[in-house]
Amino acid sequence: MAYTVQQIKVALELYDKIKKIVPTVRQLGYPSVHTLYEWINQREATGGKFPDIEPIGVRKRTRIRSMQGV
After folding, report:
1. Scanning 5, 34, 37, 45, which has its CA 20 to 30 A from the CA of 25?
2. Assigned domain for 60 exists
3. In a domain, 38, yes or no
4. Rounded to an integer, what is the distance from CA 39 to the centroid of its chain?
């Protein structure tokens, strides 16, 4: 499942407040424990810039138009 930047920020802010992974996930109902760990690690790896920047190792998909009918 894809999450919005706002959802990620809310989850990280709640985690910062209570400092516990499982209670954060239970209170919000999302994400999985594994995903929250990934967000925390990405935030640390980017010096706090994540989720406002593209996640590490993720490329934007580009749409390639078909040359048919040109």
Report:
1. 45
2. no
3. yes
4. 5
